[in-house]
Amino acid sequence: MWSDVANRPDRHVLDRADHKETAMPLLSPGDSFPSLTLTRPGGQTLALPDAFSGSFGVVLFYRGSWCPYCNAQLRAFQRAGERLAEAGIKVAALSADDEATTVEQIARHGLTFPVGHSADTTAISAATGAFVNPDPAYLQSTGFVLDRSGDVIVSVYSSGAIGRLVPEDVIGLVHHVSNGAG
User: Fold this and answer.
1) DSSP E strands: which ranges in the chain?
2) Does this model's pTM top 0.85?
3) CB atoms < 10 A from the CB of 100, how many?
4) Over 70: is that where the pLDDT of 55 sits?
């Protein structure tokens, strides 16, 4: 049974471990995307949503390099890179994978957008509402499309392996919003 938290049905999550209910803030359209710092291979950092300033942004949390669905999503966003850039869309991705695994992931798929590693799954979940697998700890697939000011246009939360943003939908949505039909 779900309890009501601040009369918002989008603010609930079921804790799978002991089946108790806990409140967790899910980001809804119009919400400001929280400030997150992604650690990139080599120690560089990327501040979100600031890195997208003036552009539309896509933030992808993926389960890990071992996940075939995540790999397909990352490859799809890489293949769509030129079309995304033409639409004024920047992409960044993040997982709990360690740095070495992330370096291998970037090389294997030829990723040119920023990819962060070693995500603090508890902190990311608390800030964004992303679902977390407890053991081993990793983020479930979560995606956000942000407007030019860093506000959420769309959030896609998955509690398991499937259910995620795809580049064609993101491009279509941005065209739709850009034409004032938002």
Assistant:
1) 12-15, 20-23, 36-39, 45-48, 56-61, 89-94, 115-116, 132-134, 137-139, 142-146, 152-157
2) yes
3) 10
4) yes
